[in-house]
């Protein structure tokens, strides 16, 4: 009850000022003062960051849907192949957010910077190992997942580039996780503005060959997405190396620290197990759906992209809770950490409850935006309604899971809440 009173009081007194501060990258303390205000300063850019991340999930499939069911099926199967990359990126992100948040709460910015550098080094190593093997064998992997000859022809280039260029995905996830842990959530939001702006412009140009651009078909979506994310990673590096900001990487931090890296691997192992529980079942589901033909898989791809679009903002609130828990535990304030979780959980329950109702009631209208054939549309509508019906329970579950992650208790949180499939 006290948490509900505080959030109402915060909203009445200074919500406009707090909103402006959150959007311009305010430096409000997360361990002192109004809890509702601190959570809002952190949550608003995180929610907007995840909204922008979810735009990737919708923009590509919006344009690719014009190429037919085989192209959409190729995108859906490639997403399942990217599951291993998202498993590692998600696991490392959990670890780096928790460690950076704890170090910042302990007033140890050098420790936070060292943790961010070690996470990036681990990400580069993992993405290189995966990218070389998966990129070379992408067509064979599509066939292994049940893709027919038509789907392989349409999506081989897309899968090769997305898998081979996975470093852009990995580093974007990891640096944004470090910025969030440091309380610099506005940075993560801004770099995704850049990435999405590039992707939105290049997608139709490279898919359909507009103006001077070559017509690459579904492969053009992979080129646009990879360029956008690569530009965002460069922006992250520039930001981290500047003199301003909470997370500041200096020359003295650019070294390999086996002790810190081992700690991140230990903590991230639990986070990776969390992500693998969800992604392993998702890979199996896509493999089963591939046997029902391109229309069924294309319909599922549309439904899950819309679900991702709705779920990622809720992940923003959950990530805010993780940072609040980590920093306040680091500052020796467990009661404040707990109260932040209840506030974020209530907000998420309300948000996803409304969105789930929209999905159930307006599924035909939402699916119609993608201009699909009747059979694909029918599968998409059924999938969207079934998934939307469970949204009201997902919100608080997401917050609780991330709260345990922020408390370095990832093994506890690994099975608390359902996860949406990772987004490309």
Structure overview:
The protein has 424 residues and is mainly α. The chain has one domain. 81% of the residues lie in helices and 0% in strands. The chain contains 16 helices and no strands. The chain has helices at 2-24, 35-64, 69-81, 83-105, 109-136, 138-144, 149-164, 167-181, 185-208, 218-241, 258-290, 294-330, 334-368, 374-388, 391-406, 410-413. It is globular and about 55 Å long.
Sum this structure up briefly:
The protein has 424 residues and is mainly alpha-helical.
Topology:
Blueprint: H1 2-24, H2 35-64, H3 69-81, H4 83-105, H5 109-136, H6 138-144, H7 149-164, H8 167-181, H9 185-208, H10 218-241, H11 258-290, H12 294-330, H13 334-368, H14 374-388, H15 391-406, H16 410-413
Separation of the first and last Cα atoms: 39 Å
What is the count of β-strands? 0
Q: Flag low-confidence runs.
A: 3-13, 413-424
Characterize the overall form.
globular
Number of distinct helices: 16
- Helix fraction bin: over 70%
Give the SSE order as H and E letters: HHHHHHHHHHHHHHHH
Strand content: under 5%
* Radius of gyration, CA atoms, in whole angstroms: 21 Å
Domain count: the total is 1
């Amino acid at each position: 009850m006290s948490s509900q009173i505080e959030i109402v009081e915060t909203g009445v007194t200074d919500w406009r000022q707090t909103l402006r501060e959150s959007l311009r990258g305010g430096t409000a303390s997360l361990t002192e003062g109004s809890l509702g205000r601190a959570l809002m300063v952190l949550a608003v850019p995180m929610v907007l960051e995840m909204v922008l991340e979810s735009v990737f999930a919708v923009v590509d499939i919006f344009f690719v849907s014009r190429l037919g069911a085989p192209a959409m099926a190729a995108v859906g199967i490639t997403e399942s192949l990217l599951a291993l990359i998202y498993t590692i990126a998600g696991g490392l992100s959990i670890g780096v957010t928790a460690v950076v948040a704890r170090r910042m709460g302990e007033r140890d910015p050098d420790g936070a910077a060292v943790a961010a550098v070690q996470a990036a080094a681990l990400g580069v190593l993992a993405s290189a190992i995966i990218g070389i093997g998966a990129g070379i064998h992408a067509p064979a992997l599509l066939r292994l997942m049940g893709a027919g000859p038509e789907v392989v022809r349409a999506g081989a280039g897309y899968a090769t580039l997305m898998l081979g260029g996975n470093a852009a995905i990995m580093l974007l996830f990891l640096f944004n996780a470090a910025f969030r842990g440091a309380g610099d959530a506005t940075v993560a939001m801004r770099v995704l503005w850049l990435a999405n702006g590039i992707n939105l412009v290049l997608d139709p140009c490279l898919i359909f060959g507009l103006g001077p651009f070559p017509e690459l078909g579904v492969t053009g979506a992979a080129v646009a997405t990879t360029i956008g994310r690569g530009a965002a990673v460069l922006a992250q590096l520039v930001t981290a190396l500047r003199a301003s900001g909470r997370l500041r990487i200096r020359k003295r931090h650019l070294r390999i620290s086996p002790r810190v890296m081992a700690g991140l691997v230990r903590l991230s192992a639990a986070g990776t197990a969390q992500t693998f529980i969800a992604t392993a079942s998702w890979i199996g589901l896509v493999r089963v759906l591939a046997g029902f033909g391109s229309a069924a898989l294309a319909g599922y791809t549309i439904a899950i992209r819309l679900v991702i679009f709705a779920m990622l903002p809720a992940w923003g609130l959950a990530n805010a809770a993780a940072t609040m828990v980590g920093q306040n535990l680091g500052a020796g304030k467990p009661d404040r950490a707990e109260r932040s979780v209840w506030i974020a959980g209530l907000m998420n329950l309300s948000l996803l409850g409304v969105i789930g109702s929209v999905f159930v009631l307006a599924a035909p209208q939402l699916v119609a935006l993608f201009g699909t054939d009747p059979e694909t549309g029918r599968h998409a509508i059924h999938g969207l309604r079934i998934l939307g019906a469970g949204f009201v329970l997902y919100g608080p579950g997401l917050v609780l899971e991330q709260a345990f992650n922020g408390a370095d208790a990832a093994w506890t949180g690994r099975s608390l809440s359902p996860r949406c499939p990772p987004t490309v």
